[in-house]
Amino acid sequence: MEPRLTDRENTTSRSGILQDSARSGLCFAIWITASLTHEWFLGFLHYRDGVDLLYLPHSLRIALVLAFGLSGVLGVCLATATLILFAMTLDFAGSDANLQSFIMTATQVFIDKPSTLASLILQALASGCCGWLALRILVPGRQASYAGMMMNLDLRTILSVVTIASVINSGVHVGAWLLLDADLGDASARFSVMLTGDVLGGVLGLVLIALSTRLFAREGKMT
After folding, report:
1. Cα distance between residue 178 and residue 172, in whole Å
2. E-state strands within the chain
3. Could you point out which of 13, 35, 112, 170 has its C-alpha 20 to 30 Å from the C-alpha of 182?
4. Residue 119: Cβ-neighbour burial (10 angstroms; 0-12, 13-18, 19+)
5. Running DSSP on this structure, what letter comes out for residue 57?
6. Does the model's pTM come out above 0.70?
7. How many other C-beta atoms can be found within 10 angstroms of the C-beta atom of residue 171?
């Protein structure tokens, strides 16, 4: 006979689920905001769709995992999928698309060409999971949460985790694009530029985030 959870344990479980959902929602909003802000202010750095010469939001893929663990992974995955779906709907349905046309267009595209759905899933997973995978590789045996590491990040660690995350993200993205276009002529160039943009943006952004975190922590101790 399986043991039944007490009311207190049920309440604690529900509270944990709500907290995780709230964290994922926060990460979703942060990633959407960061992506759109980058597009508005640094759009001139585009090399191809989805490839930038410098991509600052890449640092958030790691920072959100450091701060929120797997909730950060889920938030970024869902936000990436949403942005791709939105861009795809604009391409097929035009700028006057509403929620109904958004859903209908996406559904029809996935039915007509299942590789599009596979590509979207791969891109979303790459975007959300690359930072978590890099940390798992760099710090084996660590649990899902990496809270506290932000305060101790040095330049060597930042370079290592950003490089690993960039290789994973760029490689999977190029593979996803090849599903859409098997004759993608500039696949190697896209990989090289995306890798470079992710490394530069990731290192720069993560250094700034780490320095800001330490500064706020220092000021908090002084007050």
Report:
1. 10
2. 46-48, 51-52
3. 35
4. buried
5. T
6. yes
7. 15
Please report, for residues 76, 107, 141, 161, 187, the alpha-carbon distance to residue 179 in angstroms, rounded to integers and kept in the order given. Answer: 22, 18, 34, 27, 12
Predicted confidence (pLDDT) per residue in 30-88, tens digit: 999 999 999 999 999 999 888 999 999 999 999 999 999 999 999 999 999 999 888 87
Is residue 168 within 8 Å of residue 130, measured between CB atoms? yes
Q: Which of 88, 93, 58, 50 is nearest to 184 (CA)?
A: 50
Given a contact cutoff of 8 angstroms between Cβ atoms, the answer to whether 165 and 198 are in contact is yes
Which residue has 């090849």 as its token pair?
Answer: 178
Please state, in angstroms and as integers, the Cα–Cα distance from residue 106 to each residue in 89, 95, 126, following that order.
Answer: 7, 15, 20
* Residue type at position 222: M
Q: Read off the tokens for 32.
A: 């959407």
pLDDT tens digits, residue range 93-118?
Answer: 555 556 676 677 667 767 777 888 89
Q: Where would I find the H helices in 43-113?
A: 58-68, 70-93, 99-112
Backbone angles phi, psi at 41, to 5 degrees: -95, -30
When pLDDT is cut at 50, 70 and 90, the band that residue 188 belongs to is very high
Mean pLDDT of 182-203: 94
